[in-house]
Amino acid sequence: MRAENVDVVVIGMGPGGEYVATRLAKAGLTVVGVEARLVGGECPYYACVPTKMMIRAADALGEARRVSELAGSAQVHADWAPVAARIRADATDNWDDTVAVERFEKTGGRLVRGRGTLTAPGEVTVSTSAGERLFRAARGIVLNPGTEPAIPPIDGLAGTPYWTNRDAVAVEQVPESLIVLGGGPVGCEFAQVFARFGGAQVTVVEAQPRLLPGDEPEAGELLTGSFDAEGIDVRAGVSAAHVGYQDGQFAVQLQGAEALAAKRLLVATGRRTDLAALGVGAAGLDEQAGTIEVDERMRAADGLWAIGDVTGKGAFTHMSMYQARIAAADILGQDGETADYRAVPRVTFTDPEVGAVGLTAVAARRDGLRVRTGLARLPSTARGWIHKTGNDGFIKLVEDTDRGILVGATSAGPTGGEVLGALAVAVHAEVPTERLRQMIYAYPTFHRAIEDALRDLSD
């Protein structure tokens, strides 16, 4: 097989990979982008964009159902058809990446459709529908493989027509009933969307003791209460032991509990990357590891950079884009920023919305920090009282008492992800909490609850 010599090969053209490849191509380098699925990755086709369209529609239904508590009466008739149509027309082009491919190729880059594997230092072999192609990269290789849904080894699950997020996004009809395995952000978002549209029973099964186990415990408690009010059944602290499927019906046996039944089963139990299939051993990396370790400039090995989910710093589009910016500058030999993960933001787009940044109190203590926390409940604030219905939420602050700065915060409630912006700045810039207390917070806003949480921090 004859090798083609190029400057850079980018394996995985998700948001970060596309950014790196585009920037390097615009800088005049010969760049090959390798993608086995869709250019743009999970975010525009199966995750961030289409799911938030679903959530926007579901939130409109949820708010309309609150009219009777505020402004008279309203009749609400849910219709999934416009949601499905918008996802196809506006978000995914019916899962066609032609526009994204053309956008990249106009920069001078070249797309090769196939699965890329490291086969030697500086060398990538791409398996395409027409056979294998070999590329040698003079300047470097960037790994942005993204992740696949992680399917747990539950007895009986394999071979059943279960859904992952990719299937759930593409549905044209809301299921009559649904069991969701996994109470993290993905599982919780889908559960609420389908419950609000379907009017049928939705059950969420989470092996950890609460929903959103990676967040503050108050977040899981908040969502459980909201889900209960909407008729969503939450089973936390229990795992699925067996899955059966017969005559169009799923049966999920829980460990030490009864069996659940539903028409559909959504598996949202995390994500994974197969490093062995990526061939990282050819670069001297551990193929059995779960992630690729990188330095502050995204270097994984000599002539090899890694960005995105595979680095284990957060499976978020904004993380991939952040790391892509750093990697591209390093490949171009530019003096640029180095990675700083102390203020990584994340948002779960449920109602109420849960935004968080930095460390939870548990994580901070695990890192050896001495911390104290401050908490303000939104219903007890002026804006919460005015908002009345749908006002559940809280602000929680985590302070490093030795340095007198915030190392983490959670903003949950209406527009919780937007309120998070102020807290993310505070954590990133290490603004002293005493300085935050001296700020003027607009009245009556949701973000003014930060002031209440700071007061609780000092008590």
Write a brief caption for the model:
By secondary structure, this protein is of the alpha/beta class. Helix content is 32%, strand content 26%.
Supply database-style keywords:
Enolase-like, domain 1; 459 residues; FAD/NAD(P)-binding domain; 32% helix; single chain; alpha/beta; eight-stranded mixed sheet
Explain what this protein looks like in three dimensions.
- The chain has 459 residues and is α/β, with parallel strands linked by helices.
- The chain is built from 16 helices and 22 strands.
- The strands form five sheets. Strands 1, 2, 3, 4, 5, 6, 16 and 17 form an eight-stranded mixed β-sheet that branches. The protein has a five-stranded antiparallel β-sheet with strand order 18-19-22-21-20, sandwiched between helices.
- The model has no long low-confidence stretch (mean pLDDT 96).
Question: How many DSSP helices?
Answer: 16
> Helical residue percent?
25-40%
Assign the CATH superfamily of the largest domain.
FAD/NAD(P)-binding domain
> In percent, how much strand structure appears in the residues?
25-35%
Number of strands: 22
What is the CATH top level name of the largest domain?
Alpha Beta
- CATH fold-level topology of the largest domain: FAD/NAD(P)-binding domain
Q: Give the N-terminus to C-terminus distance in angstroms.
A: 71 Å
CATH architecture of the largest domain: 3-Layer(bba) Sandwich
Number of domains: 3
Low-pLDDT parts are none
The biggest sheet amounts to: 8 strands, mixed
- Whole-number radius of gyration? 24 Å
